[in-house]
Design a protein that fits this description.
heterodimer; A: mainly beta; 1 helix; B: Rossmann fold; 7-stranded parallel sheet
């Protein structure tokens, strides 16, 4: 028997709303399954409240009347992800369609952090913009870049307006290098990352232009990049003047 | 009936492979169907293949297959092919080893129908296949895309095929003219989509999607130029380009120099293009030529309007301008950007195009496409057909 959802979305209260294309024989309960663990939740026709379920991190399949629920809804809304992250929370749920067509609920433990939405590598300074996710509150209005090898820091100004933030780091401050190095970013104690989309491993997918800080005999190339965890960081490299293009 | 389908590489990605897998799966409901890949470079095919269809290969390029390599393999694989014309677009893939393997395979093949899927393989089948096999050459490239040397070989060898299947009516006309006076028949049959529930876009993400190998013919340089104009007015829109290829670094650099880094992501290859299309609101084709345009039909089926350059040949035969998509004069970057902006500013029009596109996609159901293939087989195999 086919149980097919034409629409399956979670709202900010973790209430799953389903519009059926092929409804289940029994539309009074849903079960969520993952690695042998089963949670049952009341289904009120097309609405199931998942907020009280003790779901562990990972991907859960959804079943109704003993059939796996398939969906034609990709379950993906960029604006929806942002809206969802505007609330303070420690657990984030997402619905999505598995490539095989099955409805899935993804569960992740989350901590407040600073989401980056735009990166502007200017000639003089690197400008970052974003918003505060999951109720994040920066401990200080400054963004700090910490050099991995030595612990040296570069400090930039930051401002917060509502839940939006804006930060600027002067390129010239990174011209202390004698070799290639990496700088990790934090904003008032918060991780700085881009996680509110469906693009993991951004390192190879999204690349930012480099800027150069001239010195007497060489230049330092400053480039923002995503780490393997999709956190934003800065790479600096010393290049001879002849190569600095 | 046994149907053998010869692909250059069934383990890669792209419209030809996806379309061939769809067709093979549907034909396997009634026939014994095998896909033979000339080359294999990975354990499993990148795209999912139904277990109704058998898959074998002639040349296994994987490191772990080294122990099975025949005597002389290592030197033959480096020597250029003499069977395939150097004007073949994928010439560098072929070698003296593929010449040997193809010659042996075609000379020993026991099957009822052999479908070959690109000019080099169509020509090889015409030259080398055993008598008694119904030879069907399929053309995934449009006629005008063949270089002179290949065209000359097509003229010489295609008359030995029983049939040529084109993806478009325009190519049907070209090949009919070329084969006039010969017994070879020419049929136009487009690619098909499996009949199954498909993910549907809600048109709620400001995402434009392009998909295909990152090579010159796909025209992503033109797409980036057009998108740079789009984000001057609509910086809230994102472009996702799916695929990999030799131009990846060049395109990434171009995107950076156009200040597109906040708006463009090079997503790499995907096995679920229909799922990704359903997350987008617009699908774009900026190819310099496009034999068919499988993703156009897939986008229609996902309820995503298509904006395409009016390149030869596929897009203009699938898209009805203003009804289910927009055709822009080939190469007109400003007009392409304007077409995208006009839809971004008119969600009602976008929704109308999407609804009509869903209707258009029904014409490409694989059950109907496979039925046309079956009619061709019947036509060709009745006594005295040739």
């Amino acid at each position: 028997m086919i149980v097919l959802a034409a629409s399956a979305r979670l709202d900010a209260d973790d209430v799953l709303r389903i519009r059926w294309a092929e409804p289940p024989a029994d539309d009074t309960t849903l079960t969520l399954r993952r690695e042998g663990t089963v949670h049952t939740v009341r289904l009120d026709g097309e609405v199931a409240d998942l907020s009280q379920l003790d779901l562990t991190d990972g991907t859960w399949s959804v079943h109704a009347a003993d059939a796996e629920v398939a969906t034609t809804d990709p379950g993906f809304s960029l604006d929806g992800l942002v809206e969802y992250a505007r609330r303070s929370r420690t657990r984030a749920l997402r619905t999505f369609r598995d490539p095989s067509g099955g409805l899935r609920v993804g569960v992740r433990s989350v901590t407040p952090y600073a989401e980056v939405t735009t990166v502007h590598p200017g000639e003089e300074k690197l400008v970052l913009e974003g918003f505060l996710a999951y109720g994040a509150t920066p401990a200080a209005d400054r963004v700090v870049a910490t050099r991995r090898k030595t612990g040296d820091t570069v400090i930039g100004e930051a401002t917060v307006t509502g839940d939006r933030w804006h930060a600027e780091l002067p390129n010239a401050s990174f011209a202390v290098e004698t070799e290639r190095n990496f700088w990790d970013l934090e904003f008032g104690g918060l991780t700085v990352a881009t996680w509110l989309d469906d693009i993991p491993e951004k390192k190879t997918k999204v690349r930012f232009p480099a800027r150069h800080v001239a010195r007497d005999t060489d230049r330092v190339r400053v480039r923002a990049y995503y780490t393997d965890q999709d956190e934003l960081a800065i790479a600096t490299t010393v290049v001879a003047n002849a190569e600095a293009s | 009936m046994k149907v053998s389908i010869l692909l250059m590489n069934a383990y890669g990605m792209g419209g030809t492979i996806r379309a061939t897998f769809n067709l093979a799966d549907e034909l396997a409901l009634r026939h014994d169907v095998e896909i033979v890949s000339v080359f294999r470079h990975r354990e499993k095919p990148f795209l999912p293949l139904s277990d109704r269809v058998t898959l074998t290969n002639l040349i296994d390029l994987r490191a772990e297959a080294k122990k099975w390599w025949r005597f002389g393999f290592a030197s033959r694989i480096k020597k250029p092919s003499t069977l395939v014309h150097p004007d073949e677009r994928a010439y560098t893939n072929f070698s003296a080893e593929s010449d040997r393997a193809l010659t042996q395979y075609l000379g020993e093949l026991r099957t009822d129908v052999l479908i070959t899927t690109r000019a080099a393989l169509n020509i090889a089948a015409a030259r080398l296949a055993r008598d008694g096999i119904t030879l069907v050459g399929q053309e995934h490239l449009h006629f005008g895309a063949h270089k002179p040397g290949v065209l000359e070989e097509i003229r010489r060898w295609y008359p030995k095929l029983d049939a040529v299947i084109t993806l478009t009516d325009a190519d049907h006309a070209e090949y009919s003219q070329l084969l006039e006076g010969h017994p070879t028949r020419v049929y136009p049959i487009g690619n098909g989509l499996p009949d199954q529930p498909r993910p549907q876009s809600r048109l709620d993400n400001r995402v434009v999607l392009a998909a295909g190998r990152l090579v010159k013919v796909k025209g992503y340089d033109r797409l980036l130029d057009a998108f740079a104009k789009v984000i001057e007015k609509r910086p809230d829109w994102k472009l996702r380009i799916y695929g990999s290829g030799t131009n990846a670094e060049k395109l990434s650099k171009r995107a950076r120099s156009l200040d597109l880094h906040n708006n463009v992501a090079f997503m790499g290859p995907t096995t679920d293009i229909e799922g990704e299309l359903a997350k987008a609101s617009l699908h774009v084709i900026t190819s310099r030529f496009e034999g068919f345009g499988m993703t156009i039909v897939e986008a229609f089926a996902a309820g995503v309007p298509v904006v395409s350059f009016d390149c030869p040949q596929g897009p203009r035969e699938i898209i009805t301008p203003g009804h289910d998509g927009i055709l822009v004069p080939d190469g007109d970057i400003d007009a392409f950007a304007d077409a995208l902006l006009s839809l971004m500013d008119d969600p009602d029009q976008m929704r109308r195009l999407a609804d009509n596109g869903r209707e258009t996609a029904l014409r490409y159901r694989i059950s109907e496409v496979a039925a046309r293939w079956d009619a061709v087989f019947t036509d060709l195999r009745r006594p005295g057909a040739r």
